Amino acid sequence: MLEKLLEEIEEKIRLKRTVWDSLEKPPYNDFEQSLWIAGMRNAKEIICKHMDDGWIPVDERLPEEDGFYLVSLNIATDIDEIKVSRAWFSENTKVFAEYGKAVIAWMPLPEPYRPNKEEHNGGNKD
Questions:
Q1: Which listed residue, of 12, 65, 91, 110, carries a Cα 20 to 30 Å from 118's Cα?
Q2: Is the same domain home to 106 and 58?
Q3: What is the pTM of this model?
Q4: Sheet containing 67-75: which strands, arranged edge to edge?
Q5: What proportion of the chain, given as a percentage, has pLDDT over 90?
Q6: Does the residue 125 lie in any domain?
Q7: Are residues 73 and 100 in the same domain?
Q8: DSSP 3-state assignment of 26?
Q9: How far apart are the first and last CA of the chain?
Q10: Is 61 inside a domain boundary?
Q11: pLDDT digits (tens, 9 = 90+) for 48-87
């Protein structure tokens, strides 16, 4: 539910920017637009603080074993997007190899999907 709210906020930011950029004379100046976007980002941060989604911030702790992990990345763009990817973590170097400091949080990879036997056999219990 909260994830949907975050998506909607991000979509609203993108939509507003698209509309403002397309107008010859936007209804708000650059400063007012920046304030609006900052307010929306603050709302996202507040929502994220109240989510128990399994993400572990890297400033709290790092994985204890080498392996692949799901990582949340703060990619520097004009809207500071948060992206999700898979990355290798080295316990020796304490670094997510592909992304380094762009990783802001991590979690173990989920278990792969395994259909139950009935679904896999077309509903037959054999």
A1: 110
A2: yes
A3: 0.49
A4: 56-57, 103-108, 67-75, 81-90, 95-96
A5: 6
A6: no
A7: yes
A8: coil
A9: 38
A10: yes
A11: 776 657 888 888 889 988 999 999 888 766 666 678 888 8
The answer to whether residue 123 sits within a structural domain is no
Backbone phi, psi, residue 8, to 5°: -65, -40
Structure-token pair, residue 57: 């911030």
Q: Report percent pLDDT > 70 for the chain.
A: 83
Distance in angstroms (rounded) separating the CA atoms of residues 17 and 79: 10
pLDDT value of residue 110: 85
Cβ neighbors of 90 (< 8 A, separation 6 or more) are 66, 97
Residue 124, domain member (yes or no) = no
C-alpha to C-alpha distance for 93 and 91, rounded to whole angstroms: 6
Domain of residue 19: give its range: 1-53
Kindly tell me the burial class for residue 43, based on how many C-beta atoms sit within 10 Å of its own C-beta (0-12, 13-18, 19 or more): middle
Among 69, 67, 9, CA closest to 39: 9
Q: Where are the beta strands (DSSP E) in the chain?
A: 56-57, 67-75, 81-90, 95-96, 103-108
Number of domains in the chain: 2
pLDDT tens digits, 4-45:
888 888 889 889 888 888 888 888 888 988 898 888 888 887
